[in-house]
Amino acid sequence: MFAPVYLDHNATTPLDSSVREAMLPWFGDRFGNASSRHEYGRAARKAVDEARAQVAAAVNAHPTEVIFTGGGSEANNLFIKGAAALMKPGLVAVSAIEHPCVREPARQLIRSGWRCLEIAVDGGGRIDLAAFDRVLAEKPRLVSIMQANNETGVIQDVAALAKTVKTAGGWMHCDAVQALGKIEVDFRALGVHGLTLSAHKIRGPVGVGALIVDKRIELAPLVAGGGQERNLRSGTENVMAIVGFGAACELIVSYREARSRQIAALQAVLEAGLVGLGACIFSAGAPRLANTSFFAIPGVDGETLVGRLDRAGFAVASGSACSSAHPEPSHTLLAMGVDAALARAAVRVSLGAGSTRQDVDGFLTALGENLASLRTMTAVAV
Amino acid sequence: MLKFPIYLDYSATTPVDPRVAEKMIPYLTELFGNPASRSHSYGWTAEKAVEEAREDVAALVNADPKEIIWTSGATESNNLAIKGAAHFYSGKGKHIITLKTEHKAVLDTVRELERQGFEATYLDVQENGLLDLNVLKAAIRPDTVVVSVMFVNNEVGVVQPIAEIGELCREKGIIFHVDAAQATGKVAIDLSTLKVDLMSFSAHKTYGPKGIGALYVRRKPRVRLEAQMHGGGHERGLRSGTLATHQIVGMGEAFRLARIEMAEENARVLALRDRLLAGLTTIEETFVNGDMDNRVPHNLNISFAYVEGESLIMAIKDIAVSSGSACTSASLEPSYVLRALGRNDELAHSSIRFTIGRFTTVEEVDYTIDLLQRKIGKLRELSPLWDMFKEGIDLDTVQWAAH
To answer: What are the domain boundaries of chain A?
Structure first.
């Protein structure tokens, strides 16, 4: 089978073989419902608890602070709506570059009497501190800022921002879905009230995530009935996926640093090549994830280029997968003040654990060839 | 060779059928794309698999694939259906009707809506566990917007008169939701004739994986919902979040197998259930809970009088059964479902739900019969209440000394 080189790890990652091995027994004899009291149920419960400890260890949290959900989107929804449900309506503020599963729940609160503000970012995609201070002066009850952006890979100083939010009396939430496994994610050090994680971005399975919640705060559940996950998320535990999430977290603990050094070296090669081909790399000067390069070749449509690269055997994206059904340019880039025409040219390459120098070199060659032929076509058309 | 403990708890969860697992594994290996990725073949392959599974799920219940929304399971489906419809139609009224014997996923959702200002009526069921339509008729008010009734009860396995309830609701313009988590593969479901607006499904009760379910949302006449999970706009905006392709593929295959094999499997399971019933009712003072005619073939719920519930569970550790639904079995409360059927606390406590499934054998059933016959006999030998009963004393008239 023809398998294109996969360079879209921010959309989803292939399952690590060790994770798959950990999951497979749950297809067989170990199929119990974790709420059942018999042996089948107790085995499932034990596995869920072990995975909870593994996830907690990966982010320096206590196992009782881990609430398993159906994924990152649900965890973000749970924190924002679950916190707001028990508060008097006030101000919710999220950064202008948040994933839709943070922005949309925040906007939903408007219907129950909340005000919703977006915190501006600068041209490099970092939180604009002056704008942040202006929002903080209005005493937001809830603030959500992602640790690393899914499109540009830009990393925010969440610990410092969280400190300010808490001093102002607000609750701070952080979506760490793209940061986990790539940089250190430390629940204690970040000092946030809630932290969102997802398994499928770290070589774990799709369909499971977690919200790490400070036990001193109270949330209302989004999904009621049955009382699982400390009553914060009812529903029969997805044991196999939870076990896989735990196993994927083990990988982070053991390999993260070595892997990020390798990937950083590949990124340097990739970006030098991109610049050589006339690309402008977004957020080039900002602290960024080592695996993420978001770039544009001025005058070349991103969608067209991505389509051609796919046919050439390289799977990349023109932006986040969740919004790739919509043809609008990246809201992250627009928030950074990038003009719409350049934003439409954007292409994202996101490297992963299996990426090699050969992949990067091959990609650059394919890109160069396609640019040449696109330019010829444009020249003919003119 | 018997393998212990013998699993007779198929209503709590089922093993994944090996054929389902086989279909899922490629999506845990090389076919790992995000179905929302529109720019490369990894994404397209995943999207195609998701749509094929949607067709298989729709086919089991004779619905249009466009009417199927993926969720993380029946609990989420129930939440989305009931809250989503109640909120969307709250301008028309704020009254909800459900049954006292519903699953917690429905009851807790309705209670949450009560806290938000909705009013709810929890209907009694008859002694056989079935809803009396006249009771429902009497409860309907001009401001009733949602009726939620489960297809098959998880504890006693009775099948509610869904077709009749649907007619009534449609006539009154009320949204009708059905929790069918326990029904798929057990009873025939035809949504082209049933007047059901919303129906919740689960994969893991029908030999599919955990963590995946679906909600049927009728298109003609169109039923509207308010989304409960917001984000990237997946599932036509009704349920955001990256789709778990391998789980969806598993649910599709599980439902496809259920459609093909249902008739044959139910006949086999029913024969085993009847064998178990015949064997267990040879024990004196046993009572079957729930109607035997309107009942799924795999469920048997029996109360054993004059034995203490916890001792009974401890005595029959060779078999994996449940003394209530798995979701509430962590608590020592007697089953609220059996209480609603009019069983007293003692009988409710000493009740066992046996649920038979695809992999249950005759040998396992025979072992279970023998085990129960021996253990109940032994427990009753130790029971002063049993002695009193045997001496002909009516225990209900005994004045117990207070301590």
So the answer is: 5-12+256-377, 17-251
